Amino acid sequence: MSELRLAHGLRFEDLYEPAGLAAIDRHFVSALKASDEGLAGRMLAARAEPASLDAKAESQLILDLSGHLEDFIAELFAIQAEVKELQARHSDLAPLFTVKRLFVQRRALKAHREQEASAFDGAALRAELTKLFDGVFDELTFARKVDAWTADEAAHAAEIDLALRYAAWATQSEAGKKLHRRGVLFKAPRKIDPMHLVHLETEQRHGVSMVKLADEQLRRREGFALTDIGTDLRGALDQANYCIWCHNQGKDSCSRGLREKDGSFKKSVFGVTLAGCPLDEKISEMHTAKANGQPLGALAIIAIDNPMAAATGHRICNDCMKACIYQKQEPVDIPQAETRTLKDVLNLPYGFEIYGLLTRWNPLNIRQPVAKLASGRRVLVVGLGPAGYTLSHYLLNQGHTVVAIDGLKIEPLPAAVSGVDAAGKRVPFHPIRDFAELQENLGSRVMAGFGGVAEYGITVRWDKNFLKVVRLLLERRASFSMFGGVRFGGTITLDQAFEMGFDHVALALGAGKPTLLDLPNGLARGVRMASDFLMALQLT
Description:
Structural class: mainly alpha
Strand order of the largest sheet: 5-4-3-6
Radius of gyration: 26 Å
Distance between the termini: 33 Å
Strand content: 5-15%
Number of helices: 23
Helix content: 40-55%
Order of helices and strands: HHHHHHHHHHEEHHHHHHHEHEHHHEHEH
Shape: globular
């Protein structure tokens, strides 16, 4: 447990109450006026008439505000030192991406082609550079030294030539690629062959030819531990800098989709419609803020259109990647950057509270910066999978009271964390300082029932600790209640729902018809659909 002291005389409860959120917004507007009165005027004018903003102007306004929002949140939670340290980690890595683009890709690969570079003695070049690096060789040191040398090329011609040869060898030779396979500096975008997306090796076993993935690509499954923990900050910034930030030209197809001349969406060679992010998330703007060293600002940009970001991102969705502007080479790994951005904030002191606050109050959301006051309307949401819990969030932000039901049994969380005791009554809950308090070992984690397919599916590719994050974003709100073990049409009927005083019933009951293989006896006795199998596996 921790004692959170917010700035401006605000209470912890204000983070969850509409009146408190409105007070936070007033303090932000005051701080913005004191810092940049012109920008505050632009923001307030945009709020008054959001339709008057074109996409480019809105993007610029969001990016102009993101730094101010970052400073305000750091002050609000009294974590200025920790935020500055995180910002510094972003800045410290910046030479990697400048040198990668301008030196490795634009100079080294042109100066020494693959055949020539492969003949270089990489070990000897590395040894010479290590001497120049005071005995330490790593990618960041290489980037910093090259950055300094290229500032005065005449004085460092010999060192630059050495670095060019090593960069060409490391990026193009098989030995260099193997040595630096886990790095980010010595990489060039790989051309995409749609007919050979999965690269396989052939080997003989017992006289039979077999194809397999290379050993270094295999992920061993052990229990329910993650097979892919995702990238680190370095990898996320690599992707953010690989993005060409094309929102200014309206070419951010990752968000808006790739269009034909007649305005229709293009299709991939596999017939997949390239419509981009289904949430229209401001991806290019998020990458811009992340690359500029604004981790809180980047998450706030994500939360404008994707407040449930804990349930998207890496290993969950990739429609954005399919529609990336890079269609003939590797796309930007947007889901990796998104999830890493969330993790960076969650790992700050009170990171969960900051993320939660941005789903209820977000001044970068010009159209609805603050959750609305109570509307007097009551909605029954049927189903607590991704559709149900996302819809519940939006209904709550519109001021409606939400009651959600699910056929699965939902296990209670500790009352001090959720704000709901075993009898379903509201009780005080404490601020979460360290995200570790919410994390569980995935191998021993007990199924909680909340989340539908997010609970019983995606067993080892997604960190289900994020599912608890999503649940708490809803469960801590006073106008939300949920009940497990309730079957709509059985335990409660549509007529009964209206008799109980609900104004609306929202059906969020599943992902639709399964895709069945066109095989004779495909569902013969003993054959089960994958969704049924996964649900049975997880719930038993």
